[in-house]
Task: structure prediction
Amino acid sequence: MKLRLNPIAVAASAIVLSAVLAGCAAGPDYRKPEVDMPVTWQLDAPWRQSTPSDTQVKGAWWERFGDAKLNALQQQALDGNQTLAVAAARLTQARATANSVSAGMYPQVSAGVRASRLRISGNRPLTNYNAANFATVQNDFALGVNVSYEVDLFGRVQRSVEGARASAEQAVADLENTRLLLSADLASNYFNLRELDVELDVLSRSIELQRKALELATSRHDLGATSGLDVAQQQALLDTTLTQVDVLRKARAQYEHAIATLTGTPAPNFSLPPALAPMTPPAVPIGMPSDLLERRPDIASAERAMAASNAQIGVARAAFFPSVILAPSYGVDSRAIETLFNAPSVLWSLGVSATQTLFDGGRISANVDFAKGGYDVAVANYRRVVLTAMQEVEDGITGVSALDRAYAQAQAAIVSARRVLDIANSRYEGGVATYLDVITAQQSLLNSERQAAQLMGQRMLTSVFLIKALGGDWSEEKVAQK
Result:
């Protein structure tokens, strides 16, 4: 009975010993490197520093634009986008790998059963010259349990588990980043398409106005009040405007096809009717620059990549030390099944194997250097991602402020252009101005209205860009103006 318990006791003792010595793991413990973060952003009026909650899930930020169609498209993309499906599958793989590596912390137990009938050769090589060989036919019944456990004296398994878990956490951040990029890409294409809807509406109204002007010029020409030049000039302006319609429709179709692909829909089966709903970007709260380290999933991914790379240094260094494996076994073996569980049928073993590399030509040292280089790459990439994030936020802040001012000025320019056109028409009808003044005024109004539509679209795109740069949505509960 005592012998039967020995393998389990030895394995348990090895586990305890490994846990006690876990603090001796090879390689450096991971510490997140410091990065230089500014105290605040460079803010233009009307921006103010605020404190959005950075512990909340960065969820459906697009709902803040108040567009039901955009909300439906975003949900469709989350359900059917294939790039997002790839990222989710990679997360599943990463978690499975982490679970597989973590299994190395525990004993591996296997059971075996053997039942055979065999004939032993009578001419087999002799093991004793004083004993003759005989051909024997007999049964062999065996039942056994084998245990294998690597005593992690130098932390190879521990560092491997740390690296696998960090990689799984990186895959989580990559999935979140893919979701953020997908939603931002979809919103950008959607607002580009809606901006073209507004431009096409502007062109439609301009074409109607220009056709009426062409009718007036033609009537005055037929009455002999003007020359054919006025008619030709107005016709040329109308033809140019009609050409621009086809160009904008082509661009709109491309955005429509892009939205179809992002939502997982074949482009020929997808259509998005024109809409002229007003587009106003939401007010985005700007937190502290250091908030990016918590909010941005790409920064979180880069940080977890550093942790995984740091763990690989420990795995590489552990190869300098012996590998110790315990392999106890216990079982029964008999030629007759009725005596299989009798005491004489018991067999057992207690084994310890240790392997130490004595000479490898510098292979282990090279592997350690390679792991250190990988960690340095991860650190540099982390700092690069942080710097890029700060650049994107500053670009977004500056862009939103500038575009708000430009859009307000564009609205004023439309009012002025309409007044100029009214004056030019009155002067032309009164015979005190040439028709070129009317044409110029019409073109100026068209340009002003199109510019306003384009600025409106750019405001929406820049708002999307800023939200993406800040890491997604925010909680209203803790947004406090300072």
Observations:
- The beta strands are 108-120, 136-151, 323-326, 329-334, 346-349, 352-355.
